[in-house]
Specification:
Among the domains are: 5-299, Distorted Sandwich (Beta-galactosidase, Chain A, domain 5); 366-545, Glycosyltransferase, CATH 1.50.10.10. Helix content is 33%, strand content 25%. The protein is built from 20 helices and 30 strands. It has a 10-stranded antiparallel β-sheet. Helix 6 runs antiparallel to helix 9 (421-437). The longest helix has 24 residues, at 490-513. The chain binds beta-D-glucopyranose. Beta-D-glucopyranose is lined by residues 337, 350-352, 479, 481, 595, 629, 631, 675.
């Protein structure tokens, strides 16, 4: 493995320019603030390979579907994450020669991501004969003023006098790399330019998304000219003479506002007001605010690892990117698998959000953030109902596999129509929210509506088999996408039955706690006693596949043991990854498993299975799993930690912790694996620290990977700000502020008073 980035606790630094790996470096050095974000592109011209990408949350394009063989029910459009106006552009010309790192002799290049402060800095030296020029570029996307980004560009001609021209510009003439018909997606709407100020408004060819980018630029002591604009391009040019050893500094402040947050008519003035306010504050103040806000965020979310700096960098990189992508103020937004770092996968929302990301936000942010993730699905209930009825001929609601606005946009029948377990994850998120926060108000307000419609879907999707007196679910794809169109995927059947049971439980709860609200819901949703009875019948008579060959193992699906049983270790490594080397039919016929499936069930419903059951299933499935989804290793790692397989737990943790930093899957150039980043956090907190919440009890049973001296993480639980520190000798739980809180450690209840800590001896496995 070739490592491009230096290992450091808080920084990720590319040392030296790597033109061949530029896309990888651009992905890794992406910046974002939940509202917008971009790849680590250069401000100045660059004529070598680059993937220009600047994305605005929730602004997308419905690209016409392109498939070889159309099937009924396929969506007509695939929602694309949309590359928007180039907002960072800043052309630099030194004594008549444009700066282009592909053409100049470049020395001492660094591109450095500071995760502690959310800042990207590039430094380099340009050589032209003996003339030496030092450059430092700093930029950040403010997490305080979300519509603002700021750039400071310093040029120092070290040993000669230079005439320097800076041309800050906005360019709306951009393309998507991911476009089905090589179309451009934007149209010009309006633009304006004067000295030190310019704006461009563009709108998408479909759906009328309007985006206004406005800039104020300044270079001290420079002459400013207004350059001729085109429909999509506006620029100023600043010219300044700089003495040897002096520094010329260009500042560029940009606001990006959209009709998601403003009236279309108000965009121009909103953009101008925002950018003027940023300019008034000035770069240093904005930067100081940015630093303070990121430090505060780390107070709630940091994980520290003592004794393994690579692991430390990995977990911080992942946490940093989760918060760059989603901050949870807006229930119309969600967490795309690539966030703001690339276009692949389109869409914004997969089951990844509920099955994975939610756990992280529950424990590191205020409950409102998770509430908004849940509310997002409630907002989209009408489309999910339409999807069930129109596309798959069922009742109730089927949430899409991939979506932006609630409509399905994925078009592979085995996933779109068959990977229906996703519905269960959405129901289970409601349970997780309520279980973690103790706040039951979501259930009556929105939860039951979603649960009832999902239950209706399951009730219409099951198949009653009279001669066996069981319900089955036929023709599905489980989480393991290397098996399609199977009958009775154990995990799907389990989560379907669980949804029916939980819906009844919530119904009963509301009957006591909010009878008037329940009555209202019963009437608007038309819930009948017969329907509830039917759900109970399905739940109790759900069929789960078994095989006498391996009686202790939950069978992933009917017929799994009829496949030739081969272990990954016995496979010639040249076949791996299977998805790049094998034909699809060969993958489907094999027993190899892409990602956690039965294990996903054991993790999701951990309290319903014994440690012995978990161990038996781990022993059977892990050797058959190729982990070709980045969502996979963390689930196995958590179960491994629970059943006492320490080495395995650590090995699997490592796979998810540095997946992108070390480019394990050789695809990080397309963007980061945002939704699975949370997996490394889950491996530490749910896995190594054994955090569980059950019936209002928060519990831990920490173990320590043998190469680490210890680890520590911050979390929020029901208004308590906790720091859990685990070393070889002791476990300490500290509370900052708060009131007395009772926690179970290794099964024993301990009380942690406000602003105090308690210490317990570590129990060795
Ligand atoms: C996985 C899915 C996941 C998707 C997006 C696929 O490779 O199999 O489970 O939802 O990636 O992360």
């Amino acid at each position: 493995m070739k490592r491009l980035f230096a290992v450091d606790e808080w920084k990720v630094t590319e040392e030296g320019l790597h033109p061949k790996e530029n896309r990888l470096a651009e992905s890794i050095t992406s910046l974002g603030n939940g509202h917008m974000g971009m790849r680590g592109n250069f401000e100045e011209d660059y004529s070598n390979d680059t993937h220009q990408g600047f994305y605005v949350a929730g602004v997308y394009y419905p690209d016409k579907t392109r498939v070889g063989w159309w099937k009924n029910g396929y969506p007509e459009y695939f929602a694309k994450v949309l590359n928007a106006t180039n907002v960072i552009g800043l052309r630099v010309v030194i004594n008549g020669t444009p700066v282009d790192l592909a053409k100049w002799e470049v020395r001492d290049f660094t591109r450095e991501l500071d995760m502690q402060r959310g800042v990207l800095t590039r430094t380099f030296t340009l050589m032209n004969g003996t003339e030496e020029t030092k450059v430092e570029v700093v930029r950040f996307f403010s997490i305080v003023d979300k519509e603002i980004l700021a750039i400071r560009y310093n040029v120092t001609p070290v040993n000669y006098e230079a005439k320097i021209e800076f041309t800050p510009y906005l360019d709306g003439d951009v393309v998507n790399e991911d476009s089905n018909y090589d179309e451009k997606f934007w149209l010009p709407v309006d633009r304006g330019v004067e000295e030190r100020f310019a704006f461009v408004t563009t709108k998408t060819k479909k759906l009328d998304w309007h985006v206004t980018a406005s800039m104020i630029a300044d270079v001290e002591g420079a002459r400013c000219e207004v350059l001729e604009a085109t429909d999509l391009f506006v620029a100023n040019k600043f010219t300044v003479n700089v003495a040897a050893g002096e520094t010329a500094t260009a500042y560029k402040y940009v606001s990006v506002v959209t009709n998601r947050d403003h009236e279309i008519e108000a965009l121009q003035s909103a953009g101008m007001t925002r950018v003027e306010a940023a300019f008034e504050k000035g770069f240093e103040t904005l930067l100081a605010e940015q630093t303070e806000a990121w430090l505060a965020r780390w107070e709630d979310a940091d994980v520290r690892i003592d004794g393994d700096i690579e692991a430390q960098q990995g977990i911080r990189f992942n946490i940093f990117n989760m918060y760059q992508t989603y901050t949870g103020e807006d229930s119309r937004l969600n967490i795309g698998p690539k966030g703001f770092t690339g276009e692949k996968y389109g869409g914004a929302t997969y089951w990844d959000t509920e099955a994975y990301c939610l756990h992280f936000y529950l424990a590191t942010a205020k409950p409102e953030v998770s509430w908004n993730l849940l509310k997002y699905r409630h907002n989209q209930l009408p489309q999910a109902k339409e999807n069930a009825v129109k596309n798959v001929g069922m009742e109730g609601a089927l949430y899409p596999m991939v979506t932006m606005n609630g409509e399905e946009c994925h078009n592979e029948w085995e996933i779109t129509h068959e990977e229906i377990h996703r519905n269960g994850a959405i129901a289970h998120a409601i349970f997780n929210y309520t279980n973690f926060t103790g706040d039951k108000s979501y259930l009556g307000q929105y939860g039951l509506e979603v649960l009832v419609e999902i239950s209706r879907y399951w009730a219409s999707r099951v198949n009653f088999v009279p001669h066996k007196d069981v319900y089955m679910i036929l023709g599905v794809t489980g989480p393991n996408e290397y098996d399609n169109n199977v009958n009775n995927n154990w995990y799907t059947n389990l989560i379907a039955a669980w949804t029916l049971e939980y819906t009844q439980e919530v119904y009963n709860y509301l009957k006591d706690a909010e009878p008037a609200r329940l009555e209202e819901l019963v009437s608007t949703l038309g819930i009948t006693d017969a329907e509830l009875a039917k759900w109970a019948d399905i739940q109790t008579k759900m069929y789960y596949p078994k095989d006498d060959l391996v009686p202790d193992v939950f069978m992933q699906q009917d017929g799994f043991m009829d496949k030739e049983q081969i272990l990954v270790k016995d496979l010639d490594p040249k076949h791996l990854p299977l998805n790049q080397n094998w034909s699809w039919d060969r993958i489907l016929r094999s027993n190899f498993i892409k990602q956690a499936d039965v294990l996903q069930g054991l993790y999701t419903f951990g309290d319903r299975f014994t440690v012995e059951q978990k161990r038996a299933n781990f022993d059977f499935y892990e050797p058959r799993t190729v982990h070709e989804s980045s969502l996979s290793p963390c689930v196995y790692s958590i179960i491994a930690a629970e059943v006492g397989y320490e080495d395995k737990a650590v090995e699997l943790y490592q796979r998810s912790a540095r997946l992108d930093l070390d480019n394990y899957n050789n695809d990080t150039e397309d963007g980061l694996h945002i939704t699975s980043m949370v997996g490394s956090w889950m491996s530490i907190v749910h896995g190594f620290a054994g955090m569980r919440i059950q019936e209002d009890n928060l519990s831990f049973s920490p173990m320590i990977p043998k190469d680490w001296n210890g680890y520590s993480f911050n979390m929020l639980w029901r208004g308590h700000h906790l720091t859990v520190t685990s070393s070889r000798e002791q476990v300490t739980i500290k509370q900052t502020g708060g009131t007395d809180v009772t926690i179970h450690v290794y099964g024993n209840a301990v009380t942690v008073p406000a602003n105090e800590s308690i210490t317990i001896e570590t129990v060795k496995a």
